[in-house]
Design goal:
mainly alpha; 2 helices
């Protein structure tokens, strides 16, 4: 009878470990997705920057920066 308890516990442990492992081949991404802006929106923002005298602002807009890490 005691031998059956060991077998049940071992089976329980094995099944617990097996069920906790992920079988998802595509893991969830780390962090938020990269922002996307259309070409038309990008050109409109550049036009607004230039129309508002952006080249004379204290905090320059880095047009080559693809993220939103600008000083505010």
């Amino acid at each position: 009878m005691e031998k059956n308890h060991y077998i049940v516990w071992i089976a329980f442990i094995i099944l617990s470990i097996a069920s906790s492992c992920s079988s998802d081949p595509d893991p969830s991404p780390v962090g938020p997705p990269a922002p996307h802006i259309s070409r038309q929106d990008s050109l409109a923002l550049v036009a607004l920057y230039k129309a508002g005298g952006g080249e004379f602002w204290d905090n320059k807009l880095l047009l080559s920066d693809k993220t939103s890490k600008q000083k505010r």
